[in-house]
Amino acid sequence: MDPLSDIVSLLRPSAAVSKPITGRGTWGVRYDAHDAPGFTIVLDGECWLALDGEPPVRIARGDFLLLPTTPPFTISSQPGVECLPGLPGDVAVRHGDQDGDPDFVSLGGTFCIERINAPLLIALLPRMVLIPATLGRSQRLGRLVELVMEECAHDDPGKEMILRRLLEVLLVEALRWQGIDSHDPRAGLLNGLRDPTLARVLRAIHSDVRRTWTVADLAKLAGSSRSAFAARFSEVLGCGPIEYLARWRMALAKDALLCGEKTLDRIADEIGYDSASAFSTAFRKRLGVSPGRYAKGAADAVAPAS
C-alpha cells in the first residue's frame, strides 16, 4: 500500500450517519466540536461555513467539504447572521423558514474512526478539504456520498463492511486532491507525497517497515545529503524520518494489539524488532505501559457492557 492508503486503512472509518440538510431564508447554526470526521456536498444554493477562529468560507452548488476532525464551526445562509446552537443527529435537518421550497440543499454526514491511532494519524492530515465543483472532481465524490446515504438508509447484510469500504474510498478520493492548501501545517503527509523525493522515501518506509532504516539510507533514496534531507523531511512532516518510522511502527503495533490476533513475537517481527523483548521495551518507553497491559486496556475499552 501507499502511505495515504495505509493511514486511511488504519483509521478504520465506520458507523456512518448521512442525511439531507436544507435551508430557506436567513438562518445560522453553531455546532460544538464533536471529534469525528464530517463531510458535505452541496446540491443546490450556497451557504457559509466558518471554523472556530477562522473567516467564513462560501460553499456553493457542487462543492464538496471534508473535515478530517470536526472543530467548533458555524454554518449559515450568509456571514454575520445570528447562529443558534445545533446538535448532530441522524435525521434530516431544515434550517430557517420551514415553509416553501428550500433555497439550500446538501447531503451531509459523519462517521467514526478508530480512536487508538486517531491523534497520530489525524495530525498528518489537513484541517479542512474543500473541493470546488468547477474542478469536476466533486461529481465522483457526490456519487460516493449518495452510495453512503443508500447504505445508511437500510440494514442489509454486509452493511458495515460496505460502509467502511465506501468511507475509505471517500477519504482517499478527497485527500489526494492536489488543491489542498500546501501551507496548512497539518497537511504534512499530503505535502510529503506531493514532493517526488519525499514521496519516494515515504513509500519505501511504508513498504518495508521491518527494515533497519538509517537517515543515510533514506537520504540516498532522496538523492540528497543527510543534513539537507533530514531538514526537509522535518520541515514538511513535522518530525525527523527515524521518528516518523518509530511512530508508524507503534501505530501498527497498537492496531495489532487492539485486534488481538497476533503474538508479541509476530508483531515484533512484522514491524522490525529483533525480539518480543526488544519490542516490549520500545513500546513501554514510548507509551508508558507494556504491550500486554495496553492490549488488555484496549480490549476492556471496547468490550460491551454486561
TrEMBL record:
By its UniProt entry, which InterPro entries does this protein fall under?
A: AraC_lig, AraC_XylS_family_regulators, Homeodomain-like_sf, HTH_AraC, HTH_AraC-typ_CS, Tscrpt_reg_AraC-type_HTH
Pfam families per UniProt: Cupin_6, HTH_18
The question of whether Cytoplasm is a record keyword is answered with: no
Which keywords does UniProt give here? DNA-binding, Transcription, Transcription regulation
| Cross-referenced SUPFAM superfamilies | Homeodomain-like
Query: What domain of life is recorded for the organism?
Result: Bacteria
Q: What positions does the domain HTH araC/xylS-type occupy?
A: 199-297
What Gene3D superfamilies does the entry give? Homeodomain-like
The residues forming a coiled coil are none
Q: Where is the signal peptide?
A: none
Query: This protein is called what?
Result: AraC family transcriptional regulator
Organism source for this protein?
Plastorhodobacter daqingensis
